[in-house]
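Handout, section B. The chain below has 132 residues.
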Amino acid sequence: MMDKRLENIKRRHQIETWIEHSEELIKQDFDYLIQQAEKVQELERDRAEWEIESHTQNTRNKRLEQQFNDLYRKHFIKVERLEQQNQRYKETLEFYADVNNHGDTIEDFEYEPPIYHDNGEKARRALRGEST
């Protein structure tokens, strides 16, 4: 009889130990789940902040891209105008530099050289932006 009673005591002790151990495990599990839920909330807050920041940066990037494109167009147009101006000046300078258009004396030509008839008109047209 003592053996049976001893066995019952041992079994109850094992069950109680298991229950106590289970309660501790359950408490640890709940603590872990609470920590995970808090981390999720923190990450969701961070994500929301990053989305706002991302939207702000995207808006800023679009604005900067538009400003860049506007400046590029303005400078491109300016460069085109300067290239055209340089071409006019080049043609005008070539006209005045061409020895066939003037000579040391009027006797160098069978007729008056073109530069004598021009009187600087070609240069004035180039400076006004007109084609020469």
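Note. DSSP finds three helices and no strands in the chain. Compare this with the example in section A.
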